[in-house]
Design goal:
The structure is a single chain. With 205 residues, the chain is α+β, with helices and mostly antiparallel strands. Helix content is 32%, strand content 25%. The protein is built from 6 helices and 8 strands. An 8-stranded mixed sheet has the order 1-2-3-4-5-6-8-7, sandwiched between helices. Helix 1 crosses helix 3. The radius of gyration is 16 Å and the shape is globular.
Length: 205
């Protein structure tokens, strides 16, 4: 898949662009509320991003946004039924983050099967607020439609991704208030004045 947009190309994630994609993804998530609250370092975040990208290659559902010389954005997506994200190994610092996401998904019911799982969205900081995230989401939805997916789901952990998804037509199906979330009897996200949201989009309407 390749789609050209004003000197930018949207392409499928491949082994060739794996490491550069993981770096963009890692740098993006270091700005996320939970990651900052947990004081996760670049050295701890990059291996997680790299695993997420490696696991995504087989499904051929993930996209990168490129200029002529560099990757400036990416969307890592999986076939939800294959539970690929469960294979990611991370330091214990991530335990509370994964626990929150697990609780966010309790009682999850898809609004259309099969499900395109949009796991991680990243944009290079110099290009944020330029519409790249929205373009990647829309291109991914179209890819999912061509592949026969019935719906898309995403765990939107920050206000930027939540705004992008709402503007793209997603609905909120569950949410957790960060400041009230407890892990091992500790309020690790008490300083975050927002919510983590589970969001879905009906691809097949």
């Amino acid at each position: 898949m390749e789609k050209k947009m004003n000197n930018l190309n949207i392409e499928q994630l491949t082994k060739k662009n794996l490491e550069n994609t993981a770096k963009v993804l890692s740098d993006s998530f270091l700005r996320e509320p939970m990651v900052r609250a947990l004081e996760i370092t670049p050295a701890e975040m990059l291996p997680v991003a790299l695993q997420a990208c490696e696991l995504a290659i087989e499904d051929e559902l993930s996209l990168v946004m490129k200029t002529k010389t560099e990757i400036i954005g990416c969307l890592i997506s999986y076939d939800y039924a294959k539970s690929r994200s469960a294979a990611i190994c991370a330091s214990s610092k991530f335990d509370s983050l994964f626990d929150l996401l697990a609780k966010l998904n309790e009682g999850y019911r898809s609004i259309g099967d099969p499900v395109l799982y949009q796991f991680m969205l990243g944009v290079e900081i110099r290009h944020k607020n330029s519409g790249i995230g929205s373009k990647l989401i829309q291109a991914n939805i179209e890819l999912g439609r061509r592949r026969g997916y019935g719906s898309a789901k995403a765990e939107a952990t920050g206000p930027i991704s939540q705004r992008i998804l709402i503007e793209s037509g997603y609905i909120v199906t569950n949410e957790i208030i960060y400041s009230s979330f407890s892990f091992n009897e500790r309020l690790l996200f008490s300083e975050i004045d927002s919510k983590c949201k589970l969001m879905q989009y009906a691809i097949r309407k």
